[in-house]
Specification:
Helices cover about 45% and strands about 15% of the residues. It has helices at about 1-25, 25-45, 50-55, 60-80, 80-105, 125-140, 155-175, 190-195, 270-275, 295-305, 320, 340-345, 370-375, and strands at about 205-215, 220-225, 235-245, 260, 280-285, 310-315, 330-335, 350-355, 360-365. The longest helix is centred in the N-terminal third of the chain and has 25 residues, at about 80-105.
Length: about 375
């Protein structure tokens, strides 16, 4: 049993560390997934006030959850304070299993975000994974008093502290400089116009027309293939019809709702993306706060002008952004839905350099000096 317990600890510890590191690569992505859960619960009527309020703290929850996941994995591997961490692991896996189970059984999520965007798992696969992990953690919990530390307390505490600090530093660095591994649709080398198309071989949603009638004060639903035998227009009063989802397909483009609109309301998406030359795009979510890097943005704007490359500011709240560009009169101002901006700008703001609609490179606000150097090297 001792050898089996070591193997189980190894599996659980490595999986938790791996899962945490994958999510640490994009903590903002996990925060958005949390907000998605909060929104679904709010719409279902479960404490809507609290759920909407939690949206503001999603990033903090994300950072803490990722950090704890990695640290818990390290603690399991070194066997440190297993009486405490076995309880914490059990609580955590029960929580994860509840989330993945809800995602799977509700059918409202395509992915639970367990391994981030780099390793997308279906809700069903995630649920099964967590059930297996729950069984393994229950074994660890049952034998927690027999697990001996692999190192002295001094070394174990040092490993835990280093793991905590390193995980927090990694997440802070990524939030400032963009994910290390880019697994999103707006990836370097990707064509935005191609990403807006439905992939070949995609399976569309399967739906059936459903009718809603009222019979003796009660609502009843049926499809065109199973009308009730006693159907009569005097007995059944028509209410509405809708398309009922039978099977969820995958006929969605990787990049959705990417529509660029001018301040006057003109859709300029196709014209901008089909531009035969270079284009600079600055994605801004919600608002833009002037800071030390703003002078670098001005220098980038001027360098783009020297190369006759247009620059556009794209925001879901463009009216609040416009005043910041008073000294950049030739910069275009475009509106866009917040969903694609959240995907495109993991740092706020994020600058893209495009050529014929293809992403040559992208930089966060903290790396605009690198963007300037890249523009300087353009022909």
């Amino acid at each position: 049993m001792k050898s089996t317990l070591k193997i189980i600890r190894g599996i659980v510890g490595v999986l938790f560390i791996f899962s945490g590191l994958v999510k640490a690569n994009d903590p903002l992505g996990l925060a958005y997934k949390m907000q998605e859960f909060f929104e679904v619960w709010a719409q279902s009527g479960f404490l809507p006030g609290l759920m909407h309020g939690l949206n503001d703290y999603a990033l903090i929850f994300s950072i803490l959850m990722i950090t704890f996941e990695i640290v818990a994995g390290v603690a399991v591997l070194v066997g440190w304070r297993m009486r405490l961490f076995s309880w914490l692991l059990l609580i955590l896996i029960i929580f994860f299993t509840f989330l993945t189970g809800y995602a799977y059984l509700s059918g409202k999520f395509r992915s639970c975000g367990c391994f981030g965007d780099c390793i997308p798992l279906s809700p069903k696969a995630s649920f099964i994974k967590d059930i297996v992990l729950t069984v393994l953690i229950l074994v660890i919990f049952a034998y927690r008093n027999k697990i001996k530390p692999a190192f002295s307390s001094f070394i174990s505490i040092g490993v835990i502290i280093i793991s905590t600090v390193a995980t927090l530093w990694l997440q802070m660095h990524i939030l400032k400089h963009l994910p290390i591994a880019d697994c999103l649709p707006f990836k370097k080398g990707k064509s935005i116009p191609q990403g807006m198309k439905i992939p070949a071989g995609a399976i569309p949603d399967s739906t059936v027309i459903t009718f809603v009638y009222t019979r003796e004060g009660q609502q009843v639903e049926f499809t065109a293939d199973n009308f009730p035998d006693d159907f009569d227009e005097d007995l059944y009063k028509f209410e509405r019809r809708y398309d009922k989802l039978i099977r969820k397909g995958n006929a969605e483009p990787p990049i959705k709702d990417f529509r660029l609109v001018t301040l006057s309301g003109t859709d300029t998406t196709e014209a901008l993306l089909q531009n035969g030359g270079f284009t600079g795009l600055l994605f801004i979510k919600d608002k833009l706060d002037s800071a030390a890097w703003f002078s670098e943005l001005k220098a980038l704007y001027e360098k783009l002008g020297e190369k006759s490359i247009p620059m556009y500011a794209i925001s879901n709240n463009i009216e609040a952004v416009v005043p910041h560009f008073s000294n950049m009169p030739d910069a275009g101002m475009l509106k866009c839905d917040v969903v694609p901006i959240k995907t495109a700008a993991r740092a706020n703001p994020t600058f893209y350099l495009l050529h014929n609609g293809t992403i040559l490179n992208k930089w966060s606000y903290a790396d605009l000096k690198q963007a300037i150097k890249a523009v300087e090297q353009l022909p």
